[in-house]
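hi support,

uploading two proteins for the ticket. first:
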Amino acid sequence: MTIPASFIQELIARADVVEIVGRYVPLKKAGANFMGLCPFHGEKSPSFSVSPTKQFYHCFGCGVHGNAIGFLMEHAGMGFVEAVHDLAGQYGLQVPEDDASPAERARAASQRQKQATLTDVLEKAGDAYRKSLRQAPGAIEYLKGRGVSGEVAKQFGIGYAPAGWRALASVFPDYDDPLLAESGLVIVNTEDGQLEASEAKRYDRFRDRVMFPIRNVKGECIGFGGRVLGDEKPKYLNSPETPVFSKGRELYGLYEARAAFRDRGYALVTEGYMDVVALAQLGFPNAVATLGTACTTEHVQKLFRFTESVVFSFDGDAAGRRAARKALDGALPYATDVRSIKFLFLPAEHDPDSFIREHGAEVFARFVAEATPLSRFMLEAAREGCDLTTAEGRAHMTSNVRPLWSAMPDGALKRQLLSEIATLVQLDAAALSDLWASTPGPRKVAAPPSPRYSESSGDGGDYPDMPPPMEFEAPRYETDSKPRKFVKGKRWGGKFEEPIEPLRGRGKPPSRPDVAVRLLLSNMAQWDALSHELHLMLCDLPGAHGALFTWLDSQLHEHGVQPWAALREGMRGLDFEALAERLMNVADAVPVPEGEEEQHLADAAKELSSVLDFMLDDRLKAQQSEAIAAVGKDPKALERYKALEARRLELRNRLSPRGSETA
């Protein structure tokens, strides 16, 4: 789905940013503007200004700024398309969709209607569960035993699912309604296809459980978590994946905790619903929980939309350490110099609830303040099982820590850690940097997660420095393989390179990844037309380029094709924002003559195809080098080399005529 840029401009012009912001932030008139306490950082004196004439907000304390759409995205955690639809709905506007057939528009409208309908169904069930709790002494006794007050139970909308198999039939007269199954409330058992849909056995998914509604950042119910009252298994049961609920993206308690993030200064990530509810009861309303799954990069990214400090709390046992290790992988790509990420390990016999009840809130707060910083936990994880008194142990740690360090965004923290790692493994920082730049290494942790090549593809890790074939090199782009001294932690092809300067006059030409960024951001529809192999290649690029392409892929899946104006809003504050803006500023400086739009798109598609073929050839050559190095050790290495050579020959035949066209 594409939203025309002209409509976005009209929407921003029509929306009253004072009214929109005022729904969330108390504002007072101060001259020509309105002032209030910034909702994005804790402060006691108002520094958050909203201008009715400029239709713009700006905080003089933390520097955050934007328009009405940007505010909904940042404060309510909406995606760009969702924010546009939400804002348009408030002003009675219909969001048009460019480049979409009537069938596509109908499908999009149907999907939005279905999501709204599913949310309505879940809200109705939640109301019924809350009413059932009043007549469920066993559930009430359980909550009282956990120290949950009626006020906190009401705040989180806690309810009770009766023990009957079809209790929801009294709530939904049409118990056979497909929406009940699609929302995850009802299970339809066809006995492995032996029964027709009309004869299928239907029964409630949640029975005799304390019910915790899971809400999105707008406060809409999108699913449930149910906790048994006894010792039955499973102890916790979540709603299944639905069009409105994905446990890999949602956090329990996020809607309730958003304001507390600002007041307390950090988000506390725990492992269960009761941890969140109990912590809110005990004075820590800034807690959220993952939904029975490991913490993902999407969880971390969502948290950093509301706070700059995150503390992960885990049990001190082996399972807790494993969960923390997975959270580390999800957090590393977001460990910038201005963010704080810590890991709190409680004694094995305690969860946060029991710890606070035994030792008090002040002791727990001190534990949080003294939690293990990400940098220290990363080094502890990397050196686990490595004897640093031996050369072999230090080499093993070097191998373990490399993908973790590489996953971090460039900055002072990352560079300091390079020196610390070098000291631990008894190398100097320059030698360690040279070692990692000149040798293929283990896979990096990406942000957010992207598909990876399997072993059968012949991919062996970061591809080394390989020059493009001279017989068909097109000189219009910067070669990505010339060795350079270390200047700034930008990596490409296994070697550090100097940052690309803004393109002015006869300045340095862009690199191939730069060109790919410019072309794909100018016409996002081209991304969908690329092969799976090219998607993987672009997402695997090091540094800001790979992170940008991975984000672009996720945007297409979540929101469909978007214009550059929409993408620009969506990437505000992300690490690759500066790269994208610099390249697109160059593209915007060269307007397309009227009447030549179709030819321009065709030329851009041809240019993108050529650039990607050159990049793919580099990658195949790197894999060939790895295959040759493995001959003698791997019996299939030579066969893999020949297959790669055949692919490269096919590429050369395609590229040769382009060399003369693009030179």
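and the second one:
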Amino acid sequence: MWDSIKQFASEFFVTGDPLIYGADVAIVLTLAAVIFVLTYFKKWTWLWREWLTTVDHKRIGIMYVIAALLMMFRGGVDALLMRTQLVMPEMEFLSPEHYNAIFTTHGVIMILFMAMPLMFGLFNLVVPLQIGARDVAFPFLNSLSFWLFFWGAMLFNVSFVIGGSPDTGWLAYPPLSQISHSPGVGQDFYIWGIQISGIGSLMTGINFIATILKMRAPGMKLMQMPMFSWSVLSSSLTIILAFPILTVTLALLFLDRYLGAHFFTLDGGGNPMMYINLIWMWGHPEVYIVVLPAFGIFSEIVATFSKKRLFGYKSMVFALMSISVVSFFTWAHHFFTMGSGADVNAFFAISTMVIAIPTGVKVFNWLFTMFRGRISFKTPMLWTMGFIPCFVIGGMTGVLLSVAPADFQFHNSYFLIAHFHQVLIGGVTFGYFAGLYYWWPKVTGFMLDEKLGKWAFWLWNIGFYLCFMPQYFLGLMGMTRRLNTYSWDKGWWDLNLVSTIGAFLMGAAFIVQVWQIVHGMKVMKRDTTGDPWGGRTLEWSIPSPAPAYNFATVPVVHSRDAWWEEKLAKEQGKPLPPKPPIEAIHMPGNSGVAFIKSFCWFLAGFGFVFNWLWLAIPGMIGVFACMLWHSFTYDNEYYIPAEEVKATEAEIRGTV
């Protein structure tokens, strides 16, 4: 029996690598510390009541952001491990198998478990406040979306200490991802982790479309919405069209692995290129899903810190929506070398070039907004200024890659790696950093230190260019991606050394940002105005942080930049329309069903990974039981009395 237990443990847990053992120790110590703190300070009830069961969009947004930052740390460590392996020729820091696992998990984590939740966090924190709503359209669905993401991410991340990480690349092309080439459970962790979190992402897209279209403040027409809300709408529309493709594709791959189907098995009548087409039908719109909200963030910041109305509002809206549409017609540029023929390659080359036009329009709109503006170079504006040259370079190299004959040379080289990161770090990450700095005082009620913020900004930017500019030249010199080592005679070592130094500078920048948050919590420089930047949209009209009900009275909107117009009217002594009297406010009640249901999904996914039907079947039964439980819950809501609202407003504003 003892031998059986040891054999099971050796197969169940990942063994043989000191780095994994170190991770095991870190996980155990972290969990023990969390349990100790919660127990010592008697916070288990508080955790359940205030966070695990909340349906408040602001708290859900905060949890998304915290999870995303933790995933950024995990994905960033993976990146530093890869760069350490490549810093010099013939390094033996990572084994080839471990290297393959790390570059697979790095890509998945950074796209799906860092960028997506950071984006959803900003959706939740900002959109209801911008459009004058008290919550999202479906608060329970919002909670369920977060917990599905969370438990899907946990299922994927646990693979590096249990069972083994996937090692087939972040998009898991067949035949590498088939049972013949990946007989272990790593690929099944990949499928179920992404599948569960992807369902949550699809729900979020539906929720925010309904919220934006049906819950805007009275008088706010679509063409009076803040630009960030427009970017969320365009991103959410893309989500609901793209993510079902991912769901079906991973389901077919699972059937290939689990039931012996042959959708993507060439010698079984299937076609692996069908998988690659399907995954990129989702994959390239996914790039725009995460970058479109960043465009909305930059639009808000540029207008605020230039103290001018955004230039070309209608053209910006058209650009966002056209990108959302055209993004579905560019996927085949990822495999010009497939052999589809000149006509197909020409179509996708042209569509890829066309999508660069609305992107360029936005850059010019931001520049014209800044022209003759009274620009204030606070941290959010610095990130915006840093984004523009970075994204222009990424766009130009993207156009180079869109030229099919040239792509035959660039394909699968480090030139492509540099371009991809130029767009996703310079566009997405810099954009979400800008948004976090911009809305931080609104969410938390305190300011972050500007000096530390500038240190982080410059370390990130210097590190970024040191890391990725050499990779363009490495690609032109013939270095292909997914290499885990190279020889001295290649002549690549000096550029790889510079690239690795840049990567560690970005890691140092992240540490500075963590310290900036800790410092801000320690100093606690309160935002007593609710409007520290001189904002233009409705979220700046309420106290920081926003009360549970957001708005004591629902605002009435008559124009774009409603809060800016109201401030101007006050300065000019114009009479403002009287506000309606404060009344009792209807609010959704907390629910633990979303947390429990998502955990049941985790159990079911874990069971399918190991082919443990004794766990998978009860997990799915739990999912359906929670669906029934919620379906017959009719009275999970309450009212905040008018007197309580008045007292809260008097406390946080000093007057009603």
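thanks. also noticed: The two ends are 72 Å apart (CA to CA).
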